[in-house]
Design a protein that fits this description.
Elements lengths: L1 H10 L7 E8 L6 H14 L5 E4 L6 H6 L6 E3 L9 H10 L3 E5 L5 H11 L1 H7 L2 E9 L3 H14 L4 E7 L9 H4 L2 H8 L3 E5 L4 H10 L3 H6 L5 H18 L19
Parallel strand pairs: 1-4, 1-5, 2-3, 2-4, 5-6, 6-7
Helix pairs in contact: 10-12
């Protein structure tokens, strides 16, 4: 019930907006940030939603590497260079997609703040009719909580929040630093929604990584064995079920399919 109330509370901030910009971030490389972004993009594609996707993680552009081959592709952004990410706002203004997904580099908080201040991103997207959801993917380390705290202090109530516990790093009740933090208390009181990302076994994960495949291609692959396909299929089902608690904030509701969108 608490999760439902949180989703409804933050939903109050989104009902007057026409679109959603979902920005995925994390404390360091390997936290599972891009895996979550890829899982979410898989759902957008599977549900035939109209979207634009961006990867600003130039050192490890997983979203681009795995999904650029799937129309409409993934555009690279560079938030570390002034003007390098202007295309995001330009595209939102000109194309007006109902959904935009942005995969930020790990530990890019300072650069994101500079990028946001330089362009006035939050005000600009609000003017265009979008609401921003910041997705923070956590591991169990202290840095995860610290970076989430800084993110909340900067963004405050200008965005909505989804906090993702990556179960690769342990069971949901093992995230003790986060669970006992004042940051969690403040976020939940503001309506943040928590999501559990299931752990994908290393063998199918490594297969996908080696082949640079989107998740759907694994299920259709003639090379992948039945165990890999079964594990990926089970992971995708659990992933989708788990993110439903934040479906509105993640852009999975109230958006027309691509073949119906203008």
């Amino acid at each position: 019930m608490a999760r439902k109330r949180n989703n409804e509370q933050m939903g109050e901030n989104t009902t007057q907006h026409k679109g959603q910009v979902v920005i995925v971030t994390g404390d360091k490389g390997g936290v599972g940030k891009s895996t979550f972004a890829r899982g979410l993009l898989h759902l957008y594609i599977n549900k035939k939603l109209k979207y634009l996707a961006y990867d600003s993680d130039h050192r490890n552009a997983q979203l681009y590497r795995h999904y650029n081959s799937v129309k409409p592709g993934v555009k690279l952004l560079n938030i570390f260079t002034r003007g390098g990410a202007d295309d995001l706002l330009i595209d939102l203004e000109s194309e007006r997609p109902p959904l935009a997904l942005v995969d930020l580099p790990a530990q890019s908080g300072v650069f994101f703040e500079e990028f946001e201040k330089d362009l006035g991103v939050f005000d600009a997207v609000k003017e265009l009719g979008y609401r921003v959801t910041m997705v923070s993917v956590l591991s169990r380390v202290k840095d995860s909580v610290n970076i989430l705290r800084v993110l909340h202090e900067y963004c405050d109530n200008r965005v909505d929040y989804v906090v993702v516990k990556n179960l690769f790093h342990g069971d949901g009740d093992k995230f003790e630093r986060y669970d006992s933090s004042q940051t969690r208390t403040k976020l939940l009181s503001a309506g943040a929604v928590e999501v559990m990302m299931p752990d994908l076994f290393f063998k199918p994960y490594d297969y996908i990584d080696e082949k640079n495949l989107p998740f759907s291609a694994v299920l259709e692959s003639k090379e992948a064995n039945i165990v890999i396909k079964s594990r990926v299929s089970a992971w995708l089902k659990e992933f989708e079920q788990n993110v439903l608690v934040a479906s509105q904030l993640l852009g999975l509701e109230n958006h027309a399919p691509a073949d119906q969108a203008a």
